[in-house]
C-alpha cells in the first residue's frame, strides 16, 4: 500500500505516522518521465507496518498546486499502481484541477463527514460536485460518518436523507484512544484493538478489498488505475 498526501502546503500525514520524509512529491511528479518502480519507491518513506508514504517535505518551501500538472500526477500514480496492491490518495478539502484529475481516475472515493449540520451541508455540496460536475457514479462513492454517536440529535436516517445516499459507513466515536494515536504516531490498532472505533476502521478497510474470488472489473478506470482508492477529508 502506498499512501499519497496531496496536501502540498502542510503535508501532515507524516506526523500521524511518525515519519520524516526525505524526498518530495513535487520532485517525483516532475521526474515522472524518467521514473521506474525502483525510483518511485525511493521517493517514499516506509512505516514499520510496510505502508509507504509519498508526500511533500514538511517545512520546506511553499508548494502550490500549479507546481504539478494534472497529467504528471496521474502518470505518477499509475507508476505506483503498477507495483502496489492499493494506492490511497488523501486529498485536501478543496476541488481544483489536481484533485479533480485524481477523483476522475479513482476506482473508489471515500468522503468523510460528521454528525453536525455544517459538516452535512458541506458534504451534500461536495457529493453534488462529484456526481454532477465531475460525472462520478454514485456507486463509486462511500460516505464515512466519523465519530458516530448513537445519541446524536441527527440520526443515521436523517443523514441518509440529507446526503441522498444509503452507501454509508459508521466509525464510532472513541476520542481518547484516537487522540493518543494522533499525538504519538502509533497506529490505533496498536493502542487498542477492542474499541468500537478500531473495529469500525477495520471493517471499512476490509470493505475496500475485492471479495475473494470476485472477478476484477475491466472498465476504463480499472484498466488505467487497477485498484486505487481515495480518502477525502
SSE topology sketch:
Elements: E1 2-5, H1 13-17, H2 25-30, H3 37-42, E2 45-46, E3 52-54, H4 70-83, E4 87-90, H5 97-104, E5 108-113, H6 117-133, E6 141-148, H7 156-163, E7 168-172, H8 175-184, H9 188-191, H10 196-208, H11 220-225, E8 228-232
Helix pairs in contact: 4-5
Anisotropy-based shape:
globular
Question: In sequence order, what are the helices and strands, one letter per element?
Answer: EHHHEEHEHEHEHEHHHHE
Q: Count of DSSP E strands? A: 8
Tally of helical runs:
11
Task: Describe this structure in a few short sentences.
The chain is built from eleven helices and eight strands. The chain has 233 residues and is α/β, with parallel strands linked by helices.
Describe the structure in your own words.
The protein is of the alpha/beta class. The protein is built from eleven helices and eight strands. It is globular.
Amino acid at each position: 500500500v502506498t499512501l499519497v498526501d496531496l496536501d502540498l502546503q502542510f503535508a501532515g500525514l507524516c506526523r500521524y505516522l511518525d515519519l520524516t520524509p526525505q524526498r518530495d512529491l513535487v520532485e517525483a511528479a516532475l521526474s515522472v518521465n524518467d521514473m521506474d518502480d525502483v525510483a518511485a519507491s525511493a521517493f517514499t518513506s516506509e512505516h514499520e507496518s510496510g505502508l509507504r508514504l509519498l508526500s511533500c517535505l514538511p517545512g520546506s518551501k511553499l508548494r502550490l498546486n500549479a507546481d504539478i500538472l494534472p497529467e504528471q500526477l496521474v502518470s505518477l500514480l499509475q507508476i505506483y499502481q503498477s507495483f502496489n496492491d492499493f494506492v490511497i490518495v488523501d486529498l485536501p478539502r478543496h476541488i481544483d484541477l489536481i484533485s479533480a484529475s485524481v477523483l476522475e481516475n479513482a476506482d473508489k472515493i471515500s468522503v468523510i463527514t460528521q454528525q453536525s449540520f455544517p459538516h452535512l451541508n458541506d458534504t451534500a455540496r461536495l457529493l453534488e460536485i462529484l456526481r454532477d460536475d465531475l460525472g462520478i457514479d454514485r456507486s463509486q462513492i462511500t460516505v464515512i460518518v466519523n465519530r458516530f454517536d448513537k445519541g446524536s440529535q441527527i440520526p443515521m436516517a436523517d443523514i441518509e436523507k440529507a446526503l441522498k445516499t444509503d452507501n454509508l459507513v459508521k466509525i464510532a466515536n472513541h476520542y481518547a484512544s484516537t487522540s493518543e494515536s494522533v499525538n504519538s504516531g502509533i497506529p490505533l490498532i496498536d493502542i487498542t484493538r477492542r474499541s468500537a472505533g478500531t473495529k469500525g476502521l477495520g471493517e471499512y478497510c476490509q470493505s475496500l478489498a475485492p471479495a475473494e474470488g470476485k472477478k476484477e472489473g475491466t472498465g476504463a478506470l480499472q484498466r488505467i488505475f487497477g485498484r486505487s482508492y481515495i480518502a477525502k477529508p
